[in-house]
Amino acid sequence: MPGLLPPAGPRRVIAASNFVYTVGSGLYLTAGVLYFTQAVRLPAGQVGAGLAVAGLFSLAAGILVGHLADRYGARGVYLATLVVQALATAGFLLADRFWPFVLAVSVATAAKAAGLAARSPLVRRYGGDRPQEFRGYLRAVSNTGISLGALLAGWAVQVGTHSAYQLLVVGNALSFAASAALLLPLPPVEPAPAAGGPRPAALRDRPYLLITALDGIMAIQFKVLTVAVPLWLVTATAAPRWLVSGTMLVNTVLVVALQVRAGRSIDSAPAGARAYRRSGMAFLVSCALIPLAAGVSAPVAVTLLMAGVVVHTIGELWHSAAGFEVSFALAPEHATGQYLGVFGLGAGLSEAVGPTLLIPLCITWGRPGWYVVGALFAVTGLLAPFAVRRAQHPRGAPGVRRSPAESRPAAPRPSGP
Q1: pLDDT (tens digit, 9 = 90+) per residue, 40-77?
Q2: 83 vs 173: CA distance, rounded Å
Q3: Which of 47, 16, 44, 56 is nearest to 138 (CA)?
Q4: CB within 8 A of 78, min separation 6: which ones?
Q5: What SS3 class is residue 114?
Q6: Residue 40 and residue 102 in contact, taking contact as beta carbons nearer than 8 Å
Q7: How high does pLDDT run on average in the chain?
Q8: pLDDT tens digits, residue range 372-397?
Q9: In Å, what is the CA distance from 135 to each residue of 129, 316, 331, 343, 410?
Q10: Taking 80 as the threshold, does the pLDDT of residue 91 lie above it?
Q11: CA dist 172 to 25, 33, 410, Å?
């Protein structure tokens, strides 16, 4: 274990807090919807509508709170988001009707998005010479925590009683509170000087907004494994249904094992742009393999599906590493929170758009729809290098940074976390 842990100090504190937090996230991601539909007995349509409303609130929260983290100190703001998320999650126990549910889940979802933006200055400040690589390490930690939370949630789902689901909610809230408590020893980060302008500089940085949009389109790939593949496997192939869990397990293990390594060679904005291009090609190949699993024998279907998932995961590793690098490298240090909050808009929109795009194309239309989705990823990856080059070009607009090579000296690469 010592070789897998960051050095003692701020990075280890952040990693430990992140691990505890994601165990709670795993509980909710696995059985949160089931709690509201099976235990609270809200109609599935109302739950879906409430989650959509919550998603809209989260889009604005990331930008606003990221800006506050830059201005007033990231540690205190991030701690506040964790406390709010813990209280809102505990409020699920009282959400026995539609509007209380919408209120509780909106506050919790907004606090989650705000926390991701507020944490970004902490990652930059304490992430060492390569904060992007540390962020990749945190993603591997997150997948480990989510997997553990999913296993614990399986108990509540198997038991299926109201009390079991309530224990799941309590555990979720306690994990967020414990995550906040673990962060208390972390030294505070000095606020950045106030930036001028009528609105946050990130919203005036059009090249950065273009990259955000492209990353958001690429981020739809996360829904391929959680929405399109399970539905395709069950409705269109002869593969056994338990393979749904198998595909997720393979994806999680590969991300935990390889995310840090995948990011080590992606150490500049141009390298991130090239990784976007490679990821788009990988998604094109995976979207060509997965639909071939329909109309063949079960062993062949299993082989094609697993091959597609492995190739897709390789693309996911490159896409995540590219996003980590580009979003940090092109954000001015004094405005990390607001820039990363804006960058999170792309992923937030993909959460809402992904299922509504993938289900009609991949499931309703079938095999041609998979090819269209793969082509969408490939074209997006090809456009990314042009967008990154445009963002690196020195500009005089307020709040916009020079290219990373001009703004800071090269630093030696660490040997890894």
Answers
A1: 888 877 887 887 788 777 777 877 787 788 788 889 99
A2: 9
A3: 16
A4: 69, 115, 118, 119, 122, 183
A5: helix
A6: no
A7: 84
A8: 999 999 999 999 999 999 988 754 33
A9: 12, 15, 15, 15, 19
A10: yes
A11: 7, 13, 42
Please spell the DSSP secondary structure of 194-220, one letter per residue: PP-SSS-GGGG-HHHHHHHHHHHHHTT
pTM for the model: 0.76
Helices marked H in 265-366 — which ranges?
269-289, 298-329, 336-358
pLDDT, tens digit (0-9, with 9 covering 90-100), for 310-369? 999 999 999 999 998 999 889 887 788 888 888 888 877 777 788 778 888 999 999 999
Q: Rounded distance, CA 205 to CA 148, Å?
A: 39
What are the backbone angles phi and psi of residue 305, rounded to the nearest 5°? -65, -45
Query: Which structure tokens are listed for 10?
Result: 């701020």
Please state, in angstroms and rounded to a whole number, the distance separating the CA atoms of residues 27 and 47: 17
Which domains are delineated in the chain? 2-182 (1.20.1250.20), 201-404 (1.20.1250.20)
Which residue shows structure tokens 């509780």? 104
Assigned token pair, 90 = 């505990």
Contact 278, 381 (CB under 8 A): yes
**388-394-395 Cα angle (round to 5):** 105
**Cα separation, 269 vs 261, whole angstroms:** 17
Query: Residue 267 gets which letter from DSSP?
Result: -
- In whole angstroms, give the CA distance from residue 314 to residue 307: 11
Start-to-end CA distance of the chain, whole Å, equals: 12
**Alpha-carbon gap, residue 391 to 62, rounded angstroms:** 22
- How many CB atoms sit inside 10 A of residue 146's CB? 23
Measure the CA angle with vertex 121, ends 116 and 125; round to 5°: 135
Cα angle 221, 223, 227; round to 5: 140
Exposure string of 34-52, with b = 16+ CB inside 10 Å and e = fewer, is bbbebbbebeeebbeebbe
For 187, other C-beta atoms within 10 Å of its C-beta total 12
| 3-state SS, residue 1 | coil
Reduced DSSP (H G I as helix, E B as strand, rest coil) percent helix, strand, coil of the chain, to 5 = 80, 0, 20
Strand segments, DSSP code E, in 36-133 are: none
What tokens appear for 196 in the block? 């001028």
Question: What single-letter amino acid sits at 276?
Answer: Y
